[in-house]
What we know:
This protein is of the alpha+beta class. It has four helices and 13 strands. Strand 2 (51-56) and strand 3 (59-68) form a beta hairpin. The radius of gyration is 16 Å and the shape is globular. The protein starts with a helix and ends with a helix. Bound molecules: arginine (ARG). Arginine is lined by residues 5, 8-9, 161, 213-219, 233, 235-236, 239, 246. It comes from Amycolatopsis carbonis.
Amino acid sequence: MRADARRVVAALAGVVAAGVVAAAGAPAASAGQEPLIVGGTPTTIDEFPATVIFNVDGAQHCAGSLVAPNKVLTAAHCTDGVKPAQMEIIGGQTNFSDTTGEKAGVTDVWQNPDFTMDGMQHDNSVLTLDKNLSFKPATLVQSADDPAYQTGADVTVVGWGTTSENGDVSDGLLKVTVPVADNATCAEAYEKIGDNFDKASMFCAGVPEGGKDSCQGDSGGPAYVDGKLAGIVSWGQGCAREGFPGVYTNVGNDYQVISSHLG
Length: 263
Ligand code: ARG
């Protein structure tokens, strides 16, 4: 449920500081799966150079993607209620704990005006940095009709988020590849538990049996299809649960309005 997103963003700093251990009773990833992102594998920033760390008040908050030398695309639920002065962007780091990255402050935030915390539609924001970063920006999918959103297309998600539901965040950058899930099936699963899946501004990705997903702390980070930024990590019912794929912002659907803020 959407309350998850709010609670998690607020709690993440605590998770990092306290190194909270997975709560008893939390569904474990499927047997035999590596507990990374959830069910993923290590990667490096060289493989996904546009991926940035998005800290708030000096603590891990979300991720994002460099989409122009001084612009970062992230999730609106990561910027809601946060002032630019509290934000810091770090590019070029594989490990969260490294101090080798390029840092930038944020001077301005454009948050999609159609976003609401309750509905999570149009979950995208563009941050303006106080300097250019030197990494190659991501290329965006430009339309909701793009083949990237066809059921079964391979979506690769990367981030430093938790490696299981209620688990610990990852120090090293992780990736996982999951197929785009059928929209109608996903909508039905979420409607059954009272969440409204907006087919226009969202898409789902995951394996039916669960075990592979993005999770808390991955929010705002990239979901690539064929090397293009197709999605932004947005929300889900827990993480990697059977029958509940992860939900991503449909970047193609909002391409026009996003690109109008890339200067
Ligand atoms: N809302 C979460 C965050 O703020 C991301 C949740 C993604 N969930 C999922 N099951 N894919 O970090």
